[in-house]
């Protein structure tokens, strides 16, 4: 018997709580004592991540009546019914539920099976994320019969109308119960994500009838019709994310759907690129932003797009935040609306790769803080003496920051020197301070000759730079169980 095996059960159980979920399962097979301790310690099984239907039921049993977070992936037509049966039996003590499909997603004909699983009361359920069905935006619209459309609508009485803590719901290909049947189970939902092909008046009536809804994420192809009556006075979105086909003109002028949902007074608005997006997002009640964040936006491969794009976040003085996705930043620099935006900025965060691709002058007369995100992929270009094809006057710049300074010898690279000395036209009477985040060579003496007359000083910050805003943007809409 090992020394670890002699630990009192309470202490051993506490140690097991520190393990990753997969390691907890392994610990139950080390020896009989560890297995007995682990199985008797129900809190160990309060977070469950699994892919096998064979272990889902035993793991839920181990949790007994303790509130449990459950994430099941790899769901297919073959195992869907067994998984839903196990979930239904334990719905009364599930706090967070995530169902993810296998690479070959389940067709829409099986949506009613999920609704049948969710007929039991869910007094502890706080978040529900169902991602097992085919993406409705990829389905041939002609194949969507009236019968299939009816199947996606949730029945009245979901959760036996007892889900008092439910605040976050994500439905792919599924729809809310209709407005004329009050759905008390959704009365406290504050965050809702819906993906559907065609948005009908009945769908919108169901959405605006949610009394607590503040954040709405819609992915649609088109709108069939709007309700005849306006939304109730209590309906007020704080955040709207709307995505659709790239050839749908949402802003020429803003379409009736946006007006119906409360645009342009929604504080946080997110959408994909559009010809007049910038003009719309800087018009009253919004205004020209004082801060612009530009970050890489990874591709959504299920939509068949292969072009690398960026995401922009505009923050103005009125508290409005506008996020633009799938931007070709290099194409925007020379556009008059973009030039107006840059000319008003006080803060700018931008990847070095985008500065490198700029092919026009960039006037930044009021900019006081410039943060350039540098990645390891930029090493080859920074080591070259040519610099970028950019002339950017920044007469009021007070802080120049390089984010991601973990590239060895960053400050001594010709591209870095050229960027600071030549590409950015700085006020040498009042030079900015140069900050290097997360350096790997902070102990190396600084060659002041290259920077002495263009910056007031060089300072190292031994911490990673802030995460791109797109990290928070995505995570706020995705539910998952921590391992």
TrEMBL record:
<protein>
    <recommendedName>
        <fullName>F-box domain-containing protein</fullName>
    </recommendedName>
</protein>
<dbReference type="InterPro" id="IPR001810">
    <property type="entry name" value="F-box_dom"/>
</dbReference>
<feature type="domain" description="F-box">
    <location>
        <begin position="1"/>
        <end position="48"/>
    </location>
</feature>
<dbReference type="InterPro" id="IPR036047">
    <property type="entry name" value="F-box-like_dom_sf"/>
</dbReference>
<dbReference type="Pfam" id="PF12937">
    <property type="entry name" value="F-box-like"/>
</dbReference>
